[in-house]
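Apologies for my clumsy wording, but could you write out the amino acids of a protein and the tokens describing how it folds?
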Amino acid sequence: MALEPTASLAAASLVLYLILTPLLITCVYWHGKPGLLGWIFLSIFATFQIVAGGILVSENGEPSIAGSLVTSIGLSPLLLGIQGILHEVQLALAPQNKRRTLPVYICTHLLVATGIALLAVGASSVFSAASASPPQEPKSSDLALWKIGAVILLLAWLIISIVSVFTLLDLRAHDGYQAHETSMLLWAVLLSLPFVGVRTVYGLIYAATRRSDLSAVTGSMTVKVLLIFLPQLGATMTLVAGGFKSRGIARKRTKNETIPLSMHGRGERA
């Protein structure tokens, strides 16, 4: 039986993330303890995409609560993965400033967890009501939870983006400091953020409008490819490339090849 276009896209996503998952697991090994959470969350994100792809392929692209919900909550491990990798960059620059960076990391992590919890509860109830026989109108409280969760995820993305820019300014403040691996990893984070921004804004718009043509399952192929599939894949592949380029960062960390962030305007000079 020929697959519907949605199922074909899901099959392509499934295959691509099956290929990316071993690479992400390799990055978990290469980057060690400081990057552990970031790369594990990215691996979880890839697993979510494999599960979502498998559900859509098995149902030949037909709408389902499980497929819609997995697609909706799949953004959270991607955000947490980027945040974890950014924290790894900060620790590589100045491990002694952990007390300064850790509170921001924890607060953002809790923000993402709260957002996805609200989104999951609200969206699952809305999807259940829509798929009932006969279809029912969703409760206003469930719609509110879904929208609030989407807004919180967008806020988390903005915070991660701002922290990333300030981290880049910190890196550039070190005259003569050539941290190739650290720089490559930070640029991977910065380049992945616009992709995630597109996906996050789309999620908020869909939560606010619930237009069927914007749905990840029933929407047009243009929406599915340009607003969901490509942004998520682009972010993941950018981070994997950065992870491979910076695979020596753990060795340099063990050799204490770091420079304090407080040494702004001063490089390492002979």
